[in-house]
Write a structure and sequence with these properties.
CATH architecture of the largest domain in chain A: 3-Layer(aba) Sandwich
Largest sheet of chain A: 7 strands, mixed
Number of strands of chain A: 9
Shape of chain A: elongated
Mean pLDDT of chain A: 89
CATH topology of the largest domain in chain A: Rossmann fold
Number of helices of chain A: 9
Strand order of the largest sheet of chain A: 5-6-4-3-7-8-9
Oligomer: homodimer
CATH superfamily of the largest domain in chain A: NAD(P)-binding Rossmann-like Domain
Strand content of chain A: 15-25%
Low-confidence stretches of chain A: none
Distance between the termini of chain A: 38 Å
Number of domains of chain A: 2
Chain lengths: 206, 206
Amino acid sequence: MAKKIPEKVVSRLTFYHSIVSEFIEQNKKNITSSQLAQRLNIDDSQVRKDFKLLNEVGRCRVGYCTKDLKENIEKTLGFSNKRNAFIVGAGHLGLALAKYDKFDNYGLNILALFDNDPLKIDMQINEKKIYHIAKLPELACELNVDIAILTVPKPFAQDVADFLIESGIRYIWNFTPCVLNAPEHIKVWNENLMASFLQFACKEID
Amino acid sequence: MAKKIPEKVVSRLTFYHSIVSEFIEQNKKNITSSQLAQRLNIDDSQVRKDFKLLNEVGRCRVGYCTKDLKENIEKTLGFSNKRNAFIVGAGHLGLALAKYDKFDNYGLNILALFDNDPLKIDMQINEKKIYHIAKLPELACELNVDIAILTVPKPFAQDVADFLIESGIRYIWNFTPCVLNAPEHIKVWNENLMASFLQFACKEID
């Protein structure tokens, strides 16, 4: 990403990207700011303001050209900077994330999963293999992976995080409900489902 | 929630809550703002500023009393306002969310799951039963549920959302990668994993 874009704008740009992709699948050549705004229940002017952050906005006679708009969002959000990652924990959440095809489109390549359950080792999920966790240090080095998506059960979260850090992982996207202890040079991004829910519940539900 | 609390503060309060709960489990009676700050890699002063939003801060001789602090965060974030919800889609993500015990603590009661796969119907997951989706309108009415957590595969997302709305669901927490079409009186909260990742990737990874 060339410029620093506020978090909420990044979020909206990914939604615009989804809607525009859908329009392209339906062979629609144009999209208007009202069509985008209506779908997200926001104001037209918000959409136009967000688009000022795009490198080129791809405006055409009737609204925006869907193809150009999609490309510009991808360029602005840096989808082409490919990053390799491992999923650590092949439970329901790990498997759900391994099957989440959108990661690929957005520049996140999940190369493999890791678990300690012998029954899961060597299984394939969405063309990604599940390895024993003991193989992680070797594969992280070999495949040059420094991002791990952590989806192990809560009681193991800290121990597994420590092991990842020893194995050369520098970025942990933490889906466990633990707040991990990590040295300062390790970046931990806590995915906070409960905060999302509380926001939703407080804002919208009387 | 009595006062309007900014999104980022809600997020941090839930993290403080996790850390304080862990201290209580370890029988620790006190916690300092530095202990909280260090764990989240933020500044002490941020923690103290956030605590000004709590109803009572539970300050004691050495930092804060863990028990009081936990209760105050719960009160401030309204964890005691119980809300009932259904999970719609019993794939990996639906099952992962059904097993996410934290929802209970935070006031979200998942009462049941729904799917259309005959092999899954009547299975139990974390003491919650999976019903055929056709049963949803009746059960939503009977159990007074108007929140649905949508975790079906992308191609079915819009049709299932339409069905939920016809069935009396008014709040949809959307985990599918679709931006749903919904009438204005229906509140849709789009969980945006990709935006999280892009934030993480842009801020932290060179």
